[in-house]
Every structure is written in C-alpha cells, then in structure tokens.
Amino acid sequence: MQVSEAEVPSGESYAYKASLIGSAHRFELTDEGLSWHISGRSGLWRYDEISAIRLSFRPVSMQQHRFRADVSHAGGGRIRILSTSWQSPALVAPQDNGFRDFIVALHARMAKAGSRATLTAGLGRTTYAAVLAFLAVLAVAMTGLLIRALMIGEFAGALFILGFAALFTWQVGGFVRRNQPQSYSFDRVPKALLP
C-alpha cells in the first residue's frame, strides 16, 4: 500500500511507510489525544501524557531531506514519526507538507491541553559534542594532508583534498547546523527541523 501526500488530510492525520515491507504507520489527532497504529499495535496517548518531543534532521542515503519526530509517553514508550515514506524499492518519497502540518497541529493540541512536555530539538548534547570532536579531528587531519601535498608539489592531490573538503562541508554542514541541541516552546517550533 502506497501512502502519498495527497491522501493525508491537512494536519489532523498522517501516515508513512517506514519500510518497504509492512503496513503504514498511521497517526491521528483526536479530541482525546494522539491515536497511533504501528505494525499491528495501536494506542491512544492523551496530550497531557506525552512527556517529550524531540525533533531532528536525519538524512539517509535514499532521502537526503528527511526529518524525524520522537514522541515519548509518560508511562514509557516512544514512537517515531518520519517525513518520508517508502514507495518502491528505489523510491523514498518526501511527505513534507503532511509531516509539517501534523507536527505543528500536534504541538498546538498539546499546548491547548496544558501539556508540560519537554520539547527539544537536534541531537543530544553528548552526541553533538562527539560529532563536533570528530569533525575537529578530521579537519586537523585534512589540513595536515593539504599542507603535505603543497610542500611536496602534489597540486592535483591538494586540489582533490580541497574539493573533497568543500563537498564534505556542504553535505555535513547542514546536518550539524540543523541538529544543534536546543529547547523550544509550543509556539516556537524550530523551522529548521520542519520540511
């Protein structure tokens, strides 16, 4: 079964296929709470029972423009909502408008219900620090290689290193910038983490 953006009513429900095999993950915002159906399981979480939401930017090889929301329940349990849906073995389609509308509507319903959920964006602080440390070590190593290539007259090698560094910065820079750890409020959902 394919899930397209046209099938998703504006804001109140959302569905996506997390994998090629299996049923769609379906979510609906009802007066009682967040209703979900995932892989034969279902539940209803009242808006005031949702303890946390974490928004992040999570590109993958098949879809470089993918966003994720992790919704946690006060009694335990977590559901993941992705902005892309598997359509075929070679196509992962974005569902940008449906995802954005649903996440904004979820925040509005939670605010109206008086939720005290923890709202965070980006990677965890420890993970983000590890990513920055890795990038710093990589930058030092690439600078050393560039200096070495210039010293021995390998201008083609130096040009390759510069090109690789520019491509890497372009690809990874957006991920690092968007996933900077931060807290936000119900009325200020970070636009950088919505499609």
Instruction: Supply the number of structural domains.
Output: 2
**What's the CATH superfamily of the largest domain, by name?**
Pleckstrin-homology domain (PH domain)/Phosphotyrosine-binding domain (PTB)
What is the rounded distance between the termini? 24 Å
Instruction: Tell me the overall shape.
Output: elongated
The computed structural class is: alpha+beta
Topology, element by element:
Layout: E1 13-16, E2 25-29, E3 34-38, E4 41-45, E5 50-57, E6 67-73, E7 78-82, E8 84-88, E9 91-94, H1 96-112, E10 118-121, H2 125-151, H3 155-178, E11 182-183
Parallel strand pairs: 5-10
Antiparallel strand pairs: 1-2, 2-3, 3-4, 5-6, 6-7, 8-9, 10-11
Helix pairs in contact: 2-3
Describe the structure.
It is a single chain. With 195 residues, this protein is an alpha+beta fold. It has helices at residues 96-112, 125-151, 155-178; strands at 13-16, 25-29, 34-38, 41-45, 50-57, 67-73, 78-82, 84-88, 91-94, 118-121, 182-183. The protein has a five-stranded mixed beta sheet with strand order 7-6-5-10-11, with helices on one face. A four-stranded antiparallel beta sheet has the order 1-2-3-4, covered by helices on one side. A hairpin with an 8-residue loop joins strand 1 and strand 2. Helix 2 (125-151) packs antiparallel against helix 3. It starts with 12 loop residues before the first strand and ends in a 12-residue tail after the last strand. 22% of the residues are buried. This is Bll5862 protein. It comes from Bradyrhizobium cosmicum. Keywords: Membrane, Transmembrane, Transmembrane helix.
